[in-house]
Amino acid sequence: MTTLRESFGDCRIIVTCGPGGIGKTTSAAALATAIATNEPLRVLVLTVDPARRLADALGVPGIGNEPLDVELAGAGTLSVAMLDPQASWDALIRRQAADEETAERILQNVLYQNITRRFVQSHDYIAMERLHELVGRGQWDLIVVDTPPTRNALDFLDAPTRMADFFSSRFLKWIIAPARSSVTSLAAKPLTYMADKILGNQFLTDITEFFLLLSSLYDGFVERAREVESLLAEESTKFLIVSTPEPIPTREATFFNQELQKRSLRIGGWLVNRMLPAELNLTATATGVAVLAREEMAQVASLIGVDVATMVAARDRMVAITEEYTIVADRERAQLAALAAGDTPVFGAFTAEGEIDTLQGVTSFGQRLLSAERVLKFD
Ligand SMILES: Nc1ncnc2c1ncn2[C@@H]1O[C@H](COP(=O)(O)OP(=O)(O)OP(=O)(O)O)[C@@H](O)[C@H]1O
Ligand SMILES: [Mg+2]
């Protein structure tokens, strides 16, 4: 039997991904915490979620762009950082620009500020870029990366390629060409003036300047985008697809699973999260309630001050609910078995009681994930 931990072997990067709101951030934090507790590894969890809840659970004042140490009594160490797209972009520009003046001009450019603040695509790229930078620091044995709830979860995977393509594109060369030539630039002056009049002060000037400045970063960007790409493809990078047993998240995750395979990226497992708790022995409970004798019913009824008919109705309702619950639980198990028929190792995780909002809660959820056993095809 393979456990989820075994399935991820000695990989150095674990990327949790999948549809929105199904537990990517929780699983990333829980896995990182439990691994750092059990093993003598320096673990970093890089989250995209500014959730205050997570910071509180991990006992850090707030999660920021720079990694913070989490106080943990374990064999290893745990650090946590949050992806702040704007701060990461600014840091990247400062690192890559030829000199300080160029960096400042880019940072002050209105278009740059809009793109890096508002465009989700720019966040996808910077998430991967940031990962590359943190790996480069060599301070961690394992980095668990949480990913944004992108509508198209593939965007962040393709972001490095798209960035490299953009920098090599004819579009970029075309747009900055007039600015490079003083003759065209003069000829284009009235046009620029008009555009500024219509689109607002400085608009076109800003665009041209932005792309011109950006082109000075060309080599560095293309090279880094390629490096990020190969980092994702490395043998020590594995993906954990997270979904719930519901049809829509399952469909999205299935698609994502196929796309990862198409790209020959490694999938360590598919976690079906938030399944109905297994502890409830449903049939026994239902039967127990159903066989309550009428006399017992009468006793209980008088004890709590209701009539027997109300008690019987309540009992029937409970039995019906329990039966429905059993049907759903059975369906979830069947779903799990069906997914397990594919090549990707499938693991299940039950809904935890209450919120997972303390270090102990996060750790114990993580421990359960690590020891989850691969669902066999014929379970
Ligand atoms: N197995 C579980 N049992 C109970 N609660 C869970 C479980 N997994 C996740 N949750 C809860 O579900 C909520 C959503 O989880 P989380 O924020 O990790 O999802 P996400 O996939 O990162 O969402 P988003 O796509 O918005 O980033 C949280 O309140 C979390 O505590
Ligand atoms: Mg999240």
UniProtKB/TrEMBL annotation:
SUPFAM superfamilies: P-loop containing nucleoside triphosphate hydrolases. Residues 12-280 form the ArsA/GET3 Anion-transporting ATPase-like domain. One of its GO terms (molecular function) is ATP binding. InterPro entries: ArsA/GET3_ATPase-like, ATPase_ArsA/GET3, P-loop_NTPase. It holds the Pfam family ArsA_ATPase. PANTHER family: ANION TRANSPORTER ATPASE-RELATED (PTHR10803:SF26), ARSENICAL PUMP-DRIVING ATPASE ARSENITE-TRANSLOCATING ATPASE (PTHR10803). This is Unannotated protein. It comes from freshwater metagenome. The lineage of its organism: unclassified sequences, metagenomes, ecological metagenomes.
